[in-house]
Amino acid sequence: MALTAEERMRAAEEAVRQLKAVLGEVGITLPSLRMDPLSAADEGALPLVELGRCNLDTALRLVAVLEGAR
Q1: Which of 69, 44, 50 lies closest to 12 in space, CA to CA?
Q2: pTM score, two decimals?
Q3: What are the beta bridge partners of residue 35?
Q4: Taking the mean position of all CA atoms in its chain, how far away is CA 70?
């Protein structure tokens, strides 16, 4: 069964919420993290999650966390 446009939007919003929460637990904030509104308008595809821009310190902390998860 295919997801409706509303279900796809809710799923993307929930993914963003979960990602913000998990990143916050390790002290990382991506200020531009959001659902991409243009991709949400496409009827056939899942909306994209936009990770956005961050400063160098945040990028390096994210690298450290990801390396620790390996």
Answers
A1: 50
A2: 0.82
A3: 49
A4: 20
